Amino acid sequence: MNEHKICFIICSNNDFYLTECFHYLANLRVPDEYIIETLVIPDAKSIAAGYNEGMRASDAKYKIYLHQDTFIINPDFLQHILDIFHADAEIGMIGMIGAEHLCWDGVMFHEKRIGNFHRLEKMIANGAQLDIEIIHDGYAQVEVVDGLMMITQYDIPWREDIINGWDFYDVSQCLEFRRAGYKIVVPGQQKAWYIHDCEIPSFWNYEAARKKTLAAYPDFFSPKKSFFYCNTDVIKSQHLPWGLMELGYEVRIDSGEAHVQDYDERSKDEFAERLKVHMCDYVISFNMSPEIAQACYEEGVPYIVWCYDSPLKELHGWFAAYPTNHIFAMDKEEIKRLESKKIPHLHYMHLAGNVTRMQGLIIEAGDEEKYGHEVAMVGSMYDKGNYEDLLPKEDNHIRREILSFVSEPVGDWRKDTIILDRLSDETVAYLANNYADAQKQFSMDNRLYYEALLARAIAHEERKLVLGELSKDHSVYLYTGSTKGIPEKVHVMGTVDPYVEAPKIFHLSKINLNITLRSIQTGIPQRVFDVMAVGGFMMSNYQRDLEELFVPDKEIVLFQSIEELKDKVNYYLRHENQRFKIAVAGYHKIKECYSFPKVLEKIISIVEKD
Global pTM? Predict the structure, then answer.
């Protein structure tokens, strides 16, 4: 092995690029006592095979595996890499840009990267959202580097038995060096040392190469579990299975539909048969289905329940205490209420936003005019269900107490406002005796059940108040299937597709409203995450979790009274720049902390500990 020799190894199929590459190599300063060798492998059957051919043909200690379209522009490049290798004999490889942590799916750019490339600083200054940290001095250790240039001081064969194409050779070789105990580093670059003039990459065999790489390195990639995602007769979501797939899990979607608020033995048996066919590690759904819980208990399969609403009468059923359940409630107060139920695996977990899918939002011609409202809300008016039926016909103290229960909290969202536990025992007994229904099946406390039911009437009155007050001075649009109790000046637009139209409304409206159903005491409704995940400006009534998860007036705007709401709507409609800053900051908080993959990772980690 010649310790004073540096060899460039290039696989080439394009003479134009190769000539340009040689032009820059000719301008490099060669350190004293070193010689340069260049080996070109034309039309290699794979990049790993080509690099192996070059490695075996050269006795150089230092080998630079270089793309033909990578042009080295720093004339002192060779001295820089020698200085790094001489500083630490454990450094086996140098790259120009890499990831400190290799993502579980093997894709290096799915994690934050460090390094530099030509014009990167200018792109960032112009607002490009690139998760890349520029380092200017020294060098930083990474787990993987980009294959545009890989420089080694030790020879380890390239795995052409795994890599028979042009993808994941860099990941594979980095893992081989790490298996051998060598470090991989990226140098600090005040200005990028190279230009990578690459064309649009082809992903024709990318996924196949990725899966082969994961399978070949089980010591770096732990096997992923499989999930059986179940829609119910109440909630159908594409976001939850999407998030699991982003994490690389195998997800099978149930072709049937389980009941949430009822229990049917035949439906349970049908689900159990589908469960046996799919043979997954976990079953998961939004909200709890008693049929799924019973079938999972009988089959011994863990059932993950992510609560979408609060309170859930299903959590008060006999099936909620099964050891196969792993229940994640989105309201901390509900967890306190359930402490006496002896549910073995009960945890708090907020909901999430589907940032990745929303990044594909396409704003078409005419969308801004159609959806660019001053104030918008997508949601129900809770006008279904005749709450007046709960009232005694005669004017007595029970009737007045129920009316007071509904009217007193309207428009008061202060921190200490208490909605539940206000009905007298007499009134609760009256409601239970006269209006008993399916809640008895699940043993939910009568007080909680009827107060949660009346909370829907509070929501109706609050939404009517908010929309009515704002529509006096502003253009207010309501997207809903509701028909009753809507103020006259509000523009009623009907229901919208949650995956196509709703994101456009959230993104383009100047102000999106959230008015939380009062039975949710501390938690955050899905609407908030949906709006912020697409970069929409969110204005919500105060909820304790909103203050804990977000920075008020920096990432989200909160109000505690109708007067404060009106003042803030007026202010932010006049101050567009501040509104944009808050919307962007809220989007980044969802992306970095509360996206579906990130929250599901937390859930799965807790389940595995359970």
Answer: 0.67
